[in-house]
Amino acid sequence: MATETQRTSQEDLWAGEFGADYIERNRGTNLIASNTELFRKVLAATDGVGSVLELGCNIGNNLMALRTLLPDADLHGVEINTQAAAEVERWGGATVEVASILEYQAQRGFDLTFTKGVLIHINPDRVRDVYSALVESSNRYVMVCEYYNPTPVEVSYRGHEQALFKRDFAGEILDAFPELTLVDYGFTYHRDPQFPLDDSTWFLMEKSG
Question: Using an 8 Å Cβ cutoff, are 145 and 118 in contact?
Fold first, then answer.
């Protein structure tokens, strides 16, 4: 795992106080309910998902939603912020590893690997390392749910520069890994009357062979 002196500026941001502040802004039953509806749609296009890996799981909001939909599944998360990872451990519904997803190498495969609102915060020079981790850790399905833009663009994020990047993450993954095919995709909307989420686009891909 990268030492603190080797971390990117983005990793330092999320591992520290900024990441802790994010925890408090992003919790609650309404958020989990919205995530549950999102993953209900994603899983409807899958078959036989019994294990899941989330890269950048924070306090486990997505894993909690998946636990509702997949009560018997093996759920695992990787998280750089120790405070967030401790909350997943206290919840107890998933295993969590404190690590940088830029350096993560799974010791096993998972039926579904995914990120949600994480690739947008990865250094553009290192984002392909996360693509590789997602694909190499997957036995079958890969899902990304992120802010979309057809071309790479940087956006100021809560007063920080070099902290949020939009691009066609799924398109880049599909181009880099020809063994993947697009299965389904959809959009979450902040004005959804029942299940609002950030304006993000999700893409579900499947490995051939």
Answer: no
Which CATH fold would you assign to the domain 4-207? Rossmann fold (3.40.50)
Domain residue ranges in the chain: 4-207
Distance CA 4, CA 13 (A): 11
Cα 133 from Cα 114, distance rounded (Å): 10
Q: Taking the CB of residue 100, how many other CB atoms lie within 10 A of it?
A: 23
Cα 182 from Cα 204, distance rounded (Å): 6
Contacts of 53 (CB under 8 A, 6+ apart): 76, 77, 78, 106, 110, 112, 113, 114, 137, 138
Q: Which run of H or of E encompasses 43?
A: helix 29-43
Element (H, E) at 88: helix 82-91
Question: pLDDT (tens digit, 9 = 90+) per residue, 106-152?
Answer: 899 999 999 999 999 999 999 999 999 999 999 999 999 999 999 99
Please tell me the pTM assigned to this model.
Answer: 0.93
Of 49, 34, 32, residue with least CA distance to 183: 49
Q: Are 169 and 175 in contact (CB under 8 A)?
A: no
User: Taking 80 as the threshold, does the pLDDT of residue 191 lie above it?
Assistant: yes
Token couple for 181: 């095919």
What is the distance in angstroms between the CA of the first residue and the CA of the last residue of the chain?
Answer: 31
